[in-house]
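Suppose you are handed a protein chain with no further information: no name, no annotation, nothing but its sequence. What can you learn? This example shows the usual starting point.
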Amino acid sequence: MLPAAKGQVANDGEIAIGGLLDMLAGHAERPLVFTYDGHPVKPGYHVTEVKAGRFEALDCGANPEAWSEIFVQLWDVIDGDRTHMTAAKFAAIIRKVSDHVALDPAARLTFEVSDGVRPMQLHRAGAPCIVDGVVQVALSPRPASCKPRDRWLENQTADTESCCAPRKDAQPCCG
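A reasonable first move is to predict its three-dimensional structure. Written in C-alpha cells, the prediction is:
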C-alpha cells in the first residue's frame, strides 16, 4: 500500500496519486467518474495501465530537471451493462500496481485518456468532489510550459506579494 502523500493538492490545483487515494478513502462505495472535454467517462471505462517513471531532463534554459510521474491510462468505453467503478475498486487497482511497481505518492499524476479511436490525450487531475452522490475527478489537458519562465513568474509574484504586503514596521518597501 502507498503511504499517505504529504501535500494532497499542489498550488496549481493538480493532485498527486497519494492525495487522490487519501481523498477517495472516505468514499469507497461511491461511483468514481472522471470528466474530460466537458463530459464524463462512459460507465464501462477501464484502467488499462498504470506506469511509473523517474525522469531527468534539461529544460529550455539548460537547467537540469528531475521528477517522478505516474501515468494512469483510461480506456473510455461502454462495456456491456457495467457501471462506473467505485472509488474502492480504483484504489484497489492502484494498490495492486504498488505491490509490483514502486509508486511515489507525491509523484506528478498524468491520465492518458482515449476512447480507443481517438489518440490518447494527456490530462492532469484536480481534487475530487462529490456531485449527486458520485465522486467526480475533473481531468484537464496538460499544457506545455517553459519552466524557466514559470519560475521567473513565480518569483515575480512572490516578490510582489512580499514587497507589497503590510509589514510590522509599517515602512513601505515598494516605491
